Amino acid sequence: MLGFDTYTQADDVRAHTGALLEHTGVYEQLSAEDNLEFYGRVYRMTPAERQARIKELLTQMDLWERREDRAANWSKGMKQKLALARAMLHRPQLVFLDEPTAGLDVVSANAVREGLEALAEREGMTVFLTTHNMAEAERLCSQVAVIREGRLVAIGHPDDLRARAGGPRLEIFGRGFTENVLRLLRARPEVAAITMENGHLEVDLTEDTDTAPLVSLAVSAGVEVQEVRRGKATLEEVFLTLMEEEK
Known about the structure:
This protein is of the alpha/beta class. The chain has two domains: 10-141, P-loop containing nucleotide triphosphate hydrolases (Rossmann fold), CATH 3.40.50.300; 167-231, Alpha-Beta Plaits (2-Layer Sandwich), CATH 3.30.70.100. It has helices at residues 10-16, 32-42, 47-60, 76-88, 106-123, 134-140, 158-162, 179-186, 212-220, 235-246; strands at residues 17-20, 94-98, 126-130, 144-148, 151-156, 169-175, 191-197, 200-205, 224-231. The radius of gyration is 24 Å and the shape is elongated. The two termini are 34 Å apart.
């Protein structure tokens, strides 16, 4: 790991990695500042390094004004942000995060994601994230691996994986989707497939192309268009497709 032997160089591995697992590692009877001070000493950071880094991280996580509060009095989301700061305190090259937003409300989970995203981008560290939240993986990850029963099923950039569940798509909401309209659209070379879903038309495209001609064609054929959306398969759809392929 990072060029170190995990059996004979475990101390070096710990010095260059951070982790946030099921147990946050936060001491609830200590203040936020004292929690990070303790871990800074464990990592043998100098007093000046500790002071500067603690202020930097707590400010980034919007916790600096509450730094003297006991962690026991904080919400779960605030504790999770403190735990994230703890994992990144010593500027590790690689950080392991296990379900960092599990059990958090929507606002708290979003705050944790924003803090993680900003820290990872600013410090250039690699984050290894384990999550069942496909939207979270889609937002944060540049490389995604899908594992089923301990076996690697697929790995790649989210856009590459999305291609396995279909290419770009167009959704048209409105009225007047007659068989003639469907026939005209299916005849277009950029259209791979067309389906009706809950009263709207889903058009799978062969490539990421200009869709204005398709909408114009539908309108000229008598469709009353109310809304048009462009999109692509979500990671959740990719995951379900991969699970089907594994059966």
